[in-house]
Amino acid sequence: MGFVLMDLLTGGGPNYADQAKQAEARRQQAITQGTQNIDQAFSGFTPDFYKKRSQAYEDFALPQLSQQYQTNRDQIGFGLANRGALASGTANKQWSNLAKAMGQAKQGIADMGISQAQALQQQVENQRNTLIGQLYQGADPSGAGAQAVQTAASYQQPSTFAPLGNMFANLANQYYLSQLMNAYQPTSYVQTGPTFSASSGAIPPPTY
Questions:
Q1: Rounded Cα–Cα distance for residues 78 and 84 (Å)
Q2: 155 is in which domain, residue-wise?
Q3: Measured between alpha carbons, how far is 138 from 127 in angstroms, rounded to an integer?
Q4: pLDDT for the residue numbered 181
Q5: Could you give the number of structural domains in the chain?
Q6: In a domain, 95, yes or no
Q7: In this structure, is residue 78 part of a structural domain?
Q8: Buried b / exposed e across 69-93, counting CB within 10 Å, b at 16+?
Q9: Does any domain span residue 46?
Q10: By CB atoms within 10 Å of each CB, which of 25, 70, 79, 196 scores lowest?
Q11: How far apart are CA 68 and CA 97, in angstroms?
Q12: Is residue 117 part of a domain?
């Protein structure tokens, strides 16, 4: 009470308005500094970064697709050879279906790479926004910057991809159904000329 009376009599005492103004100025400065720290930590997440992540998935998946293609190509080729139908209309259709499935599979892999890169970008942006929100609450620029550096480093690590699924499943199902039907309705076509071999040129070369 004595201090209050003395302040009233002398016209002194703290200037709470100025103190609040100064505190808010310090808070805004801390937020500005913290935002700069966060932006710096996430500066490496450029469009080129996400493009490379998309390409990384293609580099991972395409060799597996090539192996699947060769397996299906050999199955179709040997099946046609056993039936003496390498030069038949059935053969042309099956090779065409194989090429179509390969094209669709390549496009699917490209689309998946883009999708995974976009999902990663969304995760990074969400985490950055979370850190900004925490900064506004705590106004701790050094803490926000340190956490941003740690978080950004975790997202910059190479992605781990799941093995490629069977991209020719539909084609294989159609082929096996055709083989089953042909077992009951053998083709009347009889091939003449050299017997089937992998080097005869009757089977399409691997498509990468």
A1: 10
A2: 27-184
A3: 16
A4: 47
A5: 1
A6: yes
A7: yes
A8: beebbebbbebbbebbbbeeebbee
A9: yes
A10: 25
A11: 14
A12: yes
Cβ neighbourhood burial of 94 (10 Å; 0-12, 13-18, 19+):
buried
pTM above 0.70, yes or no: yes
| pLDDT per position as a tens digit, 146-171 | 999 999 999 999 888 999 999 998 88
pLDDT class for 6, splitting at 50, 70, 90? low
pLDDT in tens, 58-77: 999 999 999 999 999 998 89
